[in-house]
Amino acid sequence: MTSLTAIHGVVARDLLRTMRQKSRLLGGVVRPLMWLLLVGTGFNAIAHVGGGISYQEFVYPGIVVMAALFGAMLMAISTVYDREFGVLRLMLASPAGVGAVLTGRVIAAALVGLLQGAVVLVLAPLFLAISAGQLLAAAGALALGSLVSAVLGLLVAARLRSVENFAGVINVVLFPLLFVSGALYPSALMPPPLRVVAQINPVTYQVDLIRHALGQQAEFSVATDVIVLGGVALVLFVVTRLLFDPEQRFMVRRSSHSAAG
Amino acid sequence: MTGSVPAIHTERLARHYGSRRALENLNLQVAPGALVGLLGPNGAGKTTAMLLLATLLTPTHGTALIFGHDATRNRRAVRRRLGLVFQESSVDGLLTVRENLLFAARLTGMSGRAAHENIAEAMERNGLTAHSATPARQLSGGWRRLLDITRATLHRPDLLILDEPTVGLDPEHRDMVWSLLAAQRRLQGTTILFSTHYLVEAESADLVVLLSAGQVVASDTPAALRSTIGQEVAEIEGPGAEKLAAALRGLGAAGAGVRTERGLRIGLRGSREAVVELAGSAPGIERFALRPATLEDVYFARTR
Predict the structure, then answer these.
(1) Residue B94 sits at the chain A interface (C-beta within 8 Å)
(2) B303 or A106, which is more confident?
(3) Distance separating alpha carbons of residues B38 and B40, to the nearest angstrom
């Protein structure tokens, strides 16, 4: 019960913080829409992706994933911020412990990812011929994908001690995840080494599952996508938990600041 | 509430960081409801000791029991009875005062009506009600610190650990902090362990533990510690200070002494009159003053 209440506390706080950073939320929605409208429109004329669909139609699932991926992964900055400014210690010293804190963090980040992806997704009928059922299925796929993105973000944040470091590292992680996923161009067009990378990239399966939901040609089966995404979320959460050793964080923090009293 | 089990019991508690011994052989026995001051220079091991007792560090060796619960093996039970105030404020600037407290309440397992009632009562008690809807980033350092303490005591902990709770505060807020802590002890019987560099704050403690380079160099009541210096302390300044000190030692009237920027501070034993007479006739003395011994004298005598 203590853990559930603590998880609730962490989720509520993270969502409140996010809602008060409106420019960040707005940017998270505008970025993918700009990509869709500016890049998508331009590429419509020159890119032929096969399957009888335009580039804009092809890229739509990828843009939905982009919105959720950025939204969920960038939420991990809260963890780095809390570590840098002392709130994390307070959380880790609570009876619920590190597992509850991380669970709350993942849920909050997944919800923000889902929200940002959903804003793009609800505009899909303007660009794609899809049914309400397909839209709902895509929302389900988006929820699972956002969960994976949330854990990925937390994994990146697990060992970082400053917000500046996080900002530098997250971009190096985010863009390859997106570019080598089949979100922006078909993975069939990638050179063989990149195709291998795409196959071990969890974002590939997020995009693939949404293509299934929206009735587009997909590379893997629905079962494969769901199993891979569920498995990746679970394994990465365990890895994050192991990396997120609260004691080691204090040891590094204290020795680096030479402030132990 | 706490029975006869010690609030804190440590045996040979130690923490090493590689070859650096941040804390060594801390043996501590604290009765429930006691006020304990941890003193020592920066790097003495105060924060390390507090983090060990707060379950946030694992000892290299030794044990720490908090109300009978092992701080390493039964962290959850210890944390339920613990309130923590860190050196740096743990307040979220984007949240209001009330939201910060609600977040803290939920972290300790409080929810629903109980949480809201506790928060309202705590804000009222600590003078925060008028600030309840204020974003924490708009609070002054003093109010943030009061919010920190309110947050740490919201769940009525049996042991409150505060790492330099008054650092950087003006005298008015320092006074408010100590009033809150006194009320916490009086009303809840809370055991309080704090560190400070304002040594006068430790004068009212039941036990003072003085650390230096990771070792306990003195541990007793403030009165007992002061008595180790002498009945009084002589402050001697001028080129003849060393000679006078030597003469006092010759008389057997000088105890522990330390060199300061301007001269010497020496604890005195025995006849006051003999000392005053000797000082009055000593050459090269620009200033000679007697005053009661303080914890600061103990601090300098034991840590230099």
Answers:
(1) yes
(2) A106
(3) 7
Top residue of B55, B72, B107 to mutate, by most chain A CBs within 10 Å, is B107
Q: Does B102 touch chain A (CB under 8 A)?
A: yes
In a domain, A245, yes or no: yes
Residues in B touching A94 (Cβ below 8 Å): 79, 107-108
pTM higher than 0.90 for the full model?
Answer: no
Could you tell me the two tokens for A68?
């959720």
- Chain A residues in contact with B195 (beta carbon < 8 A): 261
Whole-number pLDDT of residue A258 = 36
Buried b / exposed e along A85-104 (16+ C-beta atoms within 10 A)? bbbbbbbbbbbbbbebbbbb
Which pLDDT does position B263 carry in this prediction? Answer: 84
Nearest CA to B46 among B214, B177, B200, B232?
B214
State the ipTM, two decimals: 0.87
Task: State the Cα–Cα distance between residues A87 and B290, nearest whole angstrom.
Answer: 47
Which of B22, B79, B109 minimises the CB distance to A93? B79
The rounded distance, in Å, linking the Cα atoms of A123 and A107 is 25
Closest CA of chain A from B42, distance in Å: 5
Q: Report the alpha-carbon distance of residue A259 to residue B87 in Å, rounded.
A: 10
Into how many domains does chain A fold? 1
Q: What pLDDT, in 10s, does the model give residues B187-217?
A: 999 999 999 999 999 999 999 999 999 999 9
The per-residue pLDDT for B251 is: 81
Q: List, for residues B79-134, the tens digit of each pLDDT value.
A: 999 999 998 888 999 999 999 999 999 999 999 899 999 999 999 999 999 999 99
A12: domain range?
Answer: 3-255
Query: According to the model, what pLDDT value does residue A254 have?
Result: 42
Compute the distance between CA of residue B167 and CA of residue B196 in angstroms, rounded to an integer.
Answer: 8
A260 part of a folded domain: no
CB contact under 8 A, A90 and B104: yes
Choose the weakest-confidence range: A199-213, B192-206, B242-256: B242-256
Q: Do B86 and A250 touch (CB under 8 A)?
A: no
Residues of A in contact with B51 (CB under 8 A): 250
Q: Is residue A261 part of a domain?
A: no
Residues of chain B with Cβ-Cβ distance to A20 below 8 Å are 94
Average pLDDT, chain A: 89
- For β-strands B232-237 and B263-268, DSSP reports them as antiparallel
Q: What share of chain A is helix, strand, coil (3-state, %, to 5)?
A: 80, 0, 20
List of chain A residues whose C-beta atoms are within 8 Å of the C-beta of residue B90: 86-87, 89-90
The answer to whether residue A43 sits within a structural domain is yes
Smallest CA–CA distance from B50 into chain A, residue: A261
Residues B141-171 pLDDT 10s: 999 999 999 999 999 999 999 999 999 899 9
